[in-house]
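Reminder to self: tokens first, then the designed residues, so the page reads top to bottom the way the pipeline ran.
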């Protein structure tokens, strides 16, 4: 593979643009601004202090709110105690053993934190903070890339940037997610082995956006030599279909949360397959940990899945009339008790994008209508009202919503109400009709709505996989894992427990594979090394959840269910 330079944006101009957080002058401004931050260059630590580094002994001093504050030693008081003059202007007496050394000025805003002379927590955080303040959101840490979410659009992902990072070594260009993707692509071609990119972090860290950028880069560089013969039955290339899958998944699988306006509520492993020539030969998406409770319950600061609002605001009147949708989001129980809009986002325009993406991916009009039919059925289901009789049996208070639901799904009202209110269960060899209380019916309806949506989502992903599947020509693949982010909400569901548990298990696996086993190798080779514990402090919590002896939470739930 030729790694020589090519026409396009120069490395110097790209480096300057990334540092400023701005695109080339002719590029359009960001379409949605979630912050009023402007491009700037943060002064380094010693410019702020207006002192010479070599004249003082600098230390990081722990601080409750700021984490660490830099300062220089004024006096050494004995018994490991020192007086430090902080950048805030205060003098404090601290034990020198709780402080960390400050790096010289030449390490300010270093691109790879593995190059830091003093590699400690305070220096790492300071370096990330200084780079972020200068709109440099990407920083290397050895083999890894650290990304800090700016919460607004930086114009650093256009075609010029793709050209600038294509066939470039990591040391030749500034840190960027494109550099990671390019390295994975070339490693796959040279070694003929599969590659994987793990994108992890807490909720709102920017995992989904960076996943999209990886796919954007891979489809761009692998599709350079595609011909018209590679077009699919829809008249679109396979690369276009892969890119079009993302708006579909975002509409049906993403939602507004407290931390994020476009948060993925499921985890996914995207496998992009290549042939021997490095051209894309297919793709596949695996999903897991889908957040079903969001379909029926959301907090006041959040929203249901995007597609509900896009459908109700953007679908043609004829489609909504056919599905008996005559209200907006405020008229349906499952979308009424939360936010209705997202600042800067047009749900009507997003619906048009969704329909166009489904057409590109090969969804027929009938298939699209079937998806909208399920959405309408769930909305009608949430509007059904029940009441309890004197015998504590649940009955329908009124049949309008139930009739709409049954009409949309094409089922008999009597059969549906009987299944909800007086279901038949098998006891031994006999079938027994069982009456339900009001609470049982309400829970059953919510469970049915969640199950319908999850199965629809599964069928949707399978249909996308079918469109992107190619039976022949596959050699190797690059996998991108976008794991559901760790978060703690006001009310945490079982799914949230599973998400956080999975994150912690993955972190433990990552630590063991990358650090613990490596240090054990040092010991076997006789290398002098002070063994470092990389965070096994949550092992007791993991044991509480998944151990079988003594029995853990998961085992208890298995027995009950």
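Designed residues (561 positions):
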């Amino acid at each position: 593979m030729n790694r020589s330079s090519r026409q396009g944006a120069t490395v110097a101009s790209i480096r300057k643009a990334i540092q400023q957080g701005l695109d080339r002058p002719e590029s359009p401004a960001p379409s949605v601004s979630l912050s009023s931050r402007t491009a700037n260059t943060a002064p380094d630590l010693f410019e702020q202090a207006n002192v010479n580094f070599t004249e003082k002994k600098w230390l990081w001093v722990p601080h409750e709110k700021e984490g660490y504050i830099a300062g220089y030693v004024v006096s050494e008081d004995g018994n490991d105690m020192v007086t430090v003059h902080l950048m805030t202007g205060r003098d404090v007496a601290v034990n020198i053993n709780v402080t960390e050394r400050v790096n010289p000025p030449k390490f300010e805003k270093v691109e790879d934190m593995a190059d830091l002379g003093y590699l400690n927590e305070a220096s790492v955080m300071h370096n990330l903070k200084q780079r972020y303040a200068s709109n440099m959101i990407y920083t290397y840490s050895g083999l890894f890339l650290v990304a800090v979410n700016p919460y607004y659009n930086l114009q650093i992902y256009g075609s010029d940037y793709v050209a600038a990072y294509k066939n470039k070594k990591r040391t030749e260009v500034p840190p960027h997610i494109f550099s990671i993707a390019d390295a994975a692509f070339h490693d796959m071609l040279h070694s003929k082995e599969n590659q994987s990119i793990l994108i992890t972090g807490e909720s709102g860290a920017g995992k989904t956006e960076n996943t999209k950028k990886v796919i954007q880069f891979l489809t761009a560089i692998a599709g350079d030599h595609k011909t018209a013969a590679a077009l699919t039955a829809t008249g679109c290339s396979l690369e276009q279909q892969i890119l079009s899958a993302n708006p579909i998944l975002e509409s049906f699988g993403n939602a507004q949360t407290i931390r994020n306006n476009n948060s993925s509520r499921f985890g996914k492993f995207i496998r992009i397959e290549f042939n021997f020539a490095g051209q894309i030969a297919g793709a596949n998406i695996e999903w897991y940990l889908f957040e079903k409770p969001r379909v029926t319950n959301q907090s006041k600061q959040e929203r249901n899945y995007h597609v509900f609002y896009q459908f109700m605001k953007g679908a043609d009147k004829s489609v909504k009339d056919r599905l008996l949708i005559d209200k907006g989001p405020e008229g349906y129980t499952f979308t009424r008790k939360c936010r209705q809009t997202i600042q800067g986002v047009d749900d009507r325009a997003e619906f048009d994008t969704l329909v166009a993406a489904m057409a590109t991916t090969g969804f027929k009009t009938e298939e699209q209508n079937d998806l909208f039919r399920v959405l309408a059925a769930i909305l009608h289901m949430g509007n059904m009202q029940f009441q309890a009789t004197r015998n504590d049996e649940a009955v329908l208070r009124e049949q309008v919503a139930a009739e709409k639901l049954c009409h949309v799904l094409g089922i008999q009202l009597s059969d549906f109400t009987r299944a909800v209110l007086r279901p038949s269960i098998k006891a031994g060899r006999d079938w027994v009709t069982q009456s339900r209380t009001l609470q049982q019916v309400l829970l059953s309806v919510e469970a049915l709505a969640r199950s319908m949506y999850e199965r629809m989502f599964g069928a949707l992903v399978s249909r996308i996989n079918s469109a992107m599947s190619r039976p022949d020509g596959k050699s190797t693949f690059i996998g991108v894992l976008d794991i559901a982010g760790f978060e703690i909400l006001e009310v945490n569901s079982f799914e949230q427990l599973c998400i956080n548990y999975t994150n912690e298990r993955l972190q433990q696996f990552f630590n063991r594979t990358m650090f613990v086993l490596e240090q054990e190798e040092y010991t076997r080779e006789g290398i002098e090394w002070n063994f470092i514990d990389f965070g096994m402090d949550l092992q007791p919590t993991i044991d509480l959840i998944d151990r079988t002896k003594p029995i853990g939470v998961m085992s208890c739930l298995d027995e009950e269910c």
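DSSP finds 18 helices and 17 strands in the chain.
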